[in-house]
Structure formats: C-alpha cells, structure tokens
Write a structure and sequence with these properties.
Length: 287
C-alpha cells in the first residue's frame, strides 16, 4: 500500500544556520523514506524540484528563485529522462543553492537510501561531468567500489593521464602500451575516478569532463599505493604529476617513483605523444 505524506518547507529558524539545518533535515527525510512512501513538499524554491523528483517525491506551491528564474525545470527533467540523463538536470539545478549542493553530496555518500533514486534512473555507461556533484554520482561510486576490490597482478606500473577519447585505450595509452614492457601495468590517473588500472578499462564509464579534480588523484594514489606492494612506479604525467607525487609521499612510495617530466605545479597539458617524450619513456623502461 502506497503512503502519501505532506511536508511544508520550514523557513522559521531564528538564524540562517537553523534554517539551513531544517532544509538538510528535510532532504534527509526524503532520501531515507521507504520505497512505498511518496511525499509532496510544499513551498519549496523552484530549483529544489529536480532533486525532489530524483528522490521519487513531488512538490507544490513553489517559491521563485532568483538564480533560476525563467527555467522550466519540469520540461528539462522530462526531456533528460527520455533522451539523456536526468542526473544532469539535478546537478545543474543544485548549483542554484548551497543546501542543494550539500544535500546531493550527502545523498550520494552518507545517507542510506531506502528507495531507488528516481523512478527512471539507471546506471549509465557514459555521462558528462557537469559540476562537482558529478564526482559522487552513482556511476563513480560504483567504479570506486570495483577499484577497492581490485588486486594487481604486476609489481611495476606506469601512471598515465586520462584522455578525452574513450573508451580506453585512447591514442596516448595505445602509444605507451607499444613502448612499455609486459611486466609493467598501465594505470590512468583521473580527477573523476582517481585511478584506473589497465584491467579495469573495460568496466570504466565513458565520462566526459573538463573539470580538474586534483585532490581525487592525490587521495586515491595515497591509499591505493599504500595498500599494494609495487616495486617500481613511473609517472608519465603532466599537470597531475604534482598531485600524484604528493600522494606517493603519503603512501611511502616516493623513493621508488620516478616522474619523467618532473613534479612541479603546472596548469597546462604537455604533449605526451611527442617523439621526444615517448623516447624518454622508452629509454627509462628499457634501461
């Protein structure tokens, strides 16, 4: 039997912090609701609607929001649920207010969900990174669980950067594969998924991202390489080298890691497909 309930948004806190906490509590209530319960939220800002729909609930008597004035969220949400990915609409709507950014992060990472996220949501093989909210979407969390259970079969590896061309290997990775001896494993460093060992390339979502997430690389390198006993690590990296080096230091692997292009901070790409750089890699792995 389906249970219908109603909640009115509480704006009555004595300070903004109290009101903010009230909003987060409301979203936690929606996220934790039983699968057979539907809540209608009254007097919510209009930009709350996609996140509420994403949780399988509904809204009524909306308040205008200055940041999203003129946007037809219902049309955008319905379009994406049919043609593309409704999660994109949710992420973009959540940029309008801080409590939405916070709630989406907690929905993805903290609050145990007792209901399917959205009535038509399904894991995607491809997605676009629209905002920081994309870094914690279900597809990313699913891949990270696979990485956590991954057991390396080699003790030597080459770290290479991610690439726009997918599925992997991209042209850069194919060029490195032709150079590197078989005892080396290729591992892609990426701000979206952290690290992608070569064996996991076939199950990697084909994301498209223009947003660098340096700390994801540092954090993943730190725990991954502290966990496994690699004996030689080569960093064939450009702008992620600085952050991978920080992670290696935390993992206690700095003394066995060589970064061929240095570890200085940079905010631009290097031509890793150039003959000069590939020759440097080839000379090092075959020394």
């Amino acid at each position: 039997m389906r249970v219908q309930a109603n909640i009115t948004v509480d704006y009555s806190g004595p300070t903004y912090e109290h009101t903010y906490d009230n909003h987060l509590y409301l979203f936690e209530t929606l996220a934790r609701a039983d699968a057979d319960s539907t809540v209608t939220v009254h007097d919510a800002p209009s930009c709350w609607r996609p996140l509420i729909w994403y949780l399988g609930h509904d809204t009524d008597n909306h308040k205008p929001c200055e940041l999203c004035r003129g946007i037809d969220w219902k049309q955008a949400y319905q379009r994406d649920s049919i043609d593309f990915d409704l999660r994109h609409t949710v992420e973009m709507a959540c940029t309008c207010r801080p409590e939405l950014v916070h709630a989406l992060y907690l929905i993805d990472t903290r609050w145990p969900q007792r209901r399917l996220l959205g009535t038509s949501y399904a894991m995607r093989e491809d997605f676009v990174v629209t905002t920081n909210g994309s870094f914690f979407r279900p597809e990313v969390q699913n891949f990270k669980s696979k990485l956590a259970g991954y057991v390396p079969t080699k003790t030597k590896c080459v770290l290479v950067p991610c690439a726009a061309d997918k599925p992997y290997p991209a042209p850069l990775h194919a060029a490195v594969q032709r150079i590197v001896p078989p005892e080396f494993e290729l591992i892609i460093a990426t701000g979206v998924l952290g690290l992608i060992p070569e064996s996991l390339w076939p199950v990697t979502p084909n994301y498209d991202s223009g947003i660098p997430h340096f700390f994801a690389v540092e954090e993943t390198v730190a725990w991954y390489f502290a966990k496994w006993g690699y004996t030689e690590i080569i960093g064939y990296l450009d702008f992620y080298a600085h952050w991978a080096a920080r992670g290696m230091k935390r993992a206690g692997k700095a003394d066995i890691t060589t970064f061929l292009l240095g570890t200085h901070y940079r905010d631009e790409y290097s031509n890793l497909l150039s003959e000069t750089n590939l020759a440097l890699l080839e000379k090092h792995v075959n020394r």
